[in-house]
Every structure is written in structure tokens, then in C-alpha cells.
Amino acid sequence: MMSEDEKDIRRLVEVWMAATQAGDTDTVLSLMADDAVFMVPGREPFGKEAFQALAKGQKDLRIEARSDICELKVLGGRPNINNKNDMRVTLPDGKTMRRAGYTLTIMRKTAAGQWVLSRDANLLTEKS
Questions:
Q1: Which of 33, 35, 69, 87 has its CA 20 to 30 A from that of 25?
Q2: Distances (CA, A) of 16 to 95, 105, 127
Q3: Residues of the domain holding 84
Q4: Kind plus residue range of the DSSP H or E element containing 99
């Protein structure tokens, strides 16, 4: 049987993906801790402000994304999610780029009881 926390975390992932596809950066930002850290190949880890700046620079892109939770475990009171993601990004000129792979996400609960993303290691790579 799935716990309420697991249900809440799965809903958070669904909301994150829907907001990403809708270009709703404010909703995505509300789902992450202020001290969130993102790690992606080829660049230094970055935080929420840099994420927001990157998202603003992508406002003219159309994003289709899918995230399948492969594993959700609570370790030391913090949920860890292993996701398999597949994203298609259509550029303003109509060209489409596909990135796919895995992410490892660590969540935490705020004082108000809301789950938020705390750390995210995104290993998506370009696919043909």
C-alpha cells in the first residue's frame, strides 16, 4: 500500500512535469527548496536562481516531457527518487531535440508540510 507521503511526492512529479510542459516556471519554482541544487553534465552545480534564469531563457521553446518513477525510497527521512525521463524540445525554428536518461532527486518536507525538491542530479543526454 502506498503511503500518503509517496502519493504526495508522485503528485509533485506530475505537477512539475505538467508545469514544465505548460511553461509555468512559477509553479516549478514553488516545488523546489530555496537552497535547491541541480547537477547536470558539463556544468558546475547551480541553484534556484540560476534555474529560474535558464527557464526564462527557454520561454520560446515547446517542451514535451515524460517522467517515470523507477524507484522511490525514503533514506534517512528523505525521499530519493530515481526517474527515467524523456524530453522533446522544439525550438522556435521548428527543430526538435530529444534528451533522455535518468535523474536522482532528493526531496524534503518544509515546515508547512509540503514536499519540495532539494537536490537533483540530471543525467539526461541527447538522443536521436
A1: 69
A2: 24, 13, 22
A3: 4-127
A4: strand 96-109
